[in-house]
Amino acid sequence: MSYKIKSRIWIESKNKVFLGEGRVQLLKAIDETGSLSKAAKSLNISYKKAWGLIDSVNKSAKQPVTINSIGGKGGGGAELTDYGKTLVNAFDNINKNCWEFLDTQLEKIKDL
Amino acid sequence: MSYKIKSRIWIESKNKVFLGEGRVQLLKAIDETGSLSKAAKSLNISYKKAWGLIDSVNKSAKQPVTINSIGGKGGGGAELTDYGKTLVNAFDNINKNCWEFLDTQLEKIKDL
DNA sequence: ATCCGTTATATTTGTATGGATATAACGAAA
DNA sequence: TTTCGTTATATCCATACAAATATAACGGAT
User: Fold this and answer.
1) A/B interface, count of CB pairs below 8 Å
2) How confident is the model at residue A1, as a pLDDT?
3) How far is Cα B10 from Cα B6, in angstroms, rounded to an integer?
4) What is the pTM of this model?
5) Helix (H, G, I), strand (E, B) or coil at B44
6) Nearest Cα residue to B80 out of B46, B44, B32
């Protein structure tokens, strides 16, 4: 029975949360489904919460992270921009590196 | 206007939270004040919450982390064991290292 | 012109976490 | 044996956050 080190990391911009694990998960789901409502369903979160999250992301981002369209073919949709994909990849990379780093730190407590 | 990377880490044992930043803060306050109720006051949390936290810590720890006494001189009190001090130091060290590590990762997003 | 499924938004409802409060048990000291 | 301040515990209450619901706006396709 050994210990595990868990972590949550997030990026802040102007002292407000910009990107975290939940937001990145949502951005990935938007990329996969092409729609904010479908992405919310796939993550079992309410549309309202999902909308608030990407609204917040887009408002504090330097460039658009998603492009949301109302009406038209299929009623509209949402897509991840290239900039959004870059951010998602960068966050995932940092997060994965953090996990690996913390695994090395486990040595310090495994015998306590 | 640059980004900041924030983090919260915690240690789990048997899939339950064992030590996190809040618990470590509380353990430090117990060490400083000699009492659980005083420690709770100093952190502006309720006694109930504080009691639940250290009860949880002690229940999942391999050795006692605090020793709580009821009655007697001063009504009783709580003190951090040597084992508890070791845990607090180990957690603080890992947490600090994590912050430093994440600072190095900032480079990857600072131009995004 | 109508329909459709989506984004966008407000309002109401539900829930879970912590706070406030009350009280018992305890044991050394006076 | 009474006092004292603490730990331990239960119960009730408040408040913040998310869920559920409702509805408007939109624009391409039919």
Assistant:
1) 90
2) 58
3) 14
4) 0.91
5) coil
6) B32
